[in-house]
Amino acid sequence: MILPARAARAVLVLLTLGATMSAHAATRIEKKPFGQSAAGQSFLFTLAREGAPTVVVTNQGGFVVSILAPDRAGKTADVTLGYADYSGYQTAKDYLGCLVGRYANRIARGEFALDGKKYTLARNNGPNTLHGGPTGFQTRLWTPKVVHAAEGDALELTYVSKDGEEGYPGTLTAKVVYSLRADGGLVIDYTATTDAPTIVNLTNHAYFNLAGEGEGTILSHQLQIEADAFTPVDPTLIPTGELKPVAGTPFDFRSPTAIGARIDQQDEQLKRGGGYDHNFVLPGKPGALRLAARVVEPKSGRALEVFTTEPGLQFYSGNFLDGSIQGKGGKPQVKHGGLCLEAQHYPDSPNRPQWPSVVLRPGRTYRQTTVYRLTVAK
Length: 378
Description:
mainly beta
């Protein structure tokens, strides 16, 4: 249950999100070539709007390539991690900003049962399947389309995942729409349909460093997550099935806390993840857009708010970044150099019938909305 203070705060932000935008210029999108592969031509789409950050997206893997946001002094920086060149977006090592599917996060042993039939998936994370498999949605060339609306342009990406791809049943048609709000929000709307029963869990894997890409670690960022519980994991990072209260643990981010304040505590869950790599159980009704998390970088004053319709939020503190990837600014992507807040269903939900369902059937539409809102803290 949402605590009264948090409920009031959520209502306030949602009212702000719904405020009129008629006084602001509409979003405009510019397109330019990015790279050529055997699958076809990829492009960079720049979304710009007064009062909002400038966002660059590519149809290669649906990556958010950059987000330019001002600090309290008006100085702009790129606050998302990415690759130095096009080849990095093809290999998608460490998933720096991509679309993730068919199933975000982990599925135990790379298998699940649906309607009495067992399905075996491609494994790419020890004994488990991670983020859809080795050639998941992050490696695919999506079909782009600029959608025109009264409030401005939006970018729609479509990908058709064939029956049996990576072991998943049914042909899935996924559409993801990126748009900007005048209040600083990047809106990502997801829909999907299928011709046979399947499972689906989509998200975006953006890494944020609000000091700027390559500007040290995120350990001093102040994080607040609107969750009273999280899902502990086994040694292979598969949830045990428990919904554990965060109270009295290093996972209590109900009030703003520096990410590095407790990350080195002698806690079994932190040891297993090499830091934070856990799903938080969000309060409120899934399907309703609500505040999930807020991050503030103290020096720059940049703040990020995450709103979602999903039941869970994976907080990942960049534990496996090892400096082997060169970033857009020429600096290596170091351990804890970025944080992820991935709106999602809980990991391994296909094998946990007691958790919110991830089954999609013909005639139904999967829907998900996440908003990343960048502002400046007072």
